[in-house]
Amino acid sequence: MSDRTTVPDAKDAEGAIAEAAKAYSNWGRWGEDDVLGTLNFLDAEKRREGAALVRDGVSFSLSQRFDMDGPQKGWRRRTNPVHTMLDTGTDAALGNQGFPHGIGGADDVIAMPLQCSTQWDGLGHIFDHGKAWNGRAAEKVVTSDGDLVTGIEHMAPHVAGRGVLLDAGLVVGEDGELPDGFAITEEHLVATAEAHGVTVGRGDLVLVRTGRLARARREGWGEYAGGASPGLSFTTAGWLHRSEIAGIATDTWGFEVRPNEFDHAFQPLHQVAIPNMGLLIGEMWDLDALADHCAADGRYEFWLTAAPLPITGAVGSPVNPIAVK
């Protein structure tokens, strides 16, 4: 299979984005007050379907660590988490805490950008020509007080259901990995699903493994955060829309292929998928252990719960996704 895909016109990012935004818009689909986007596809029936997939009770955390050894290098002022102890065992042993009858304790605090490691993009994260999700004016949605309309707290009860792993690194790549700059097309996604014997459809939470995180762990972070990477092709926008999935996440920093497929563009698939489609997108998920287990038992569907932290007004959130098989 080709490691690149032909976009409509590599020199016309503006035109291609506008065409896709119009064709795949979900504005008004769930009413003018909607704050959930494609999570509306994940209903009670879909959750029951997902829960019924638990057979062995084996669980996997799909989160990277949150520490100073993460991939961030300061782009857009994103840093790795800074973890600071407020009280320690030393304080307790020295009697500095002022508690009675010998009790002591430890407390800590963490400071970090909400999208510095495994995370969800909220619906207020990306705008298209000044418009936020559902056609709202961006300046009225996200202000210095946060996302006043589609804050990620609204999604907190909803992100749990049938998870599907598409290990494109295994099926399409070599030695379980795709090279940087590899554009994963609809054909690749369909072929991967067929190879796994799994279907993808309405309300599913889809996880796409490229092997990029595995390579970063082997070779060092390098340009993992913001550099070249395999990822979804811009041309998958139609598949993302037609499949009516609730959300999608990858093991890469930026979800879509980098460099992007246009001569002059920055994250064009984001520009279509989030503000126009209302699609929930996750990035920097750790899918390797789950992928190994799926390959071993031949089952690529599972119960997945991945609630964002209900941080009022946030446009993204750290998450510790749990897959249970």
UniProtKB/TrEMBL annotation:
<dbReference type="InterPro" id="IPR007325">
    <property type="entry name" value="KFase/CYL"/>
</dbReference>
<dbReference type="InterPro" id="IPR037175">
    <property type="entry name" value="KFase_sf"/>
</dbReference>
<dbReference type="GO" id="GO:0016787">
    <property type="term" value="F:hydrolase activity"/>
</dbReference>
<keyword id="KW-0378">Hydrolase</keyword>
<dbReference type="Pfam" id="PF04199">
    <property type="entry name" value="Cyclase"/>
</dbReference>
<protein>
    <submittedName>
        <fullName>Cyclase family protein</fullName>
        <ecNumber>3.5.-.-</ecNumber>
    </submittedName>
</protein>
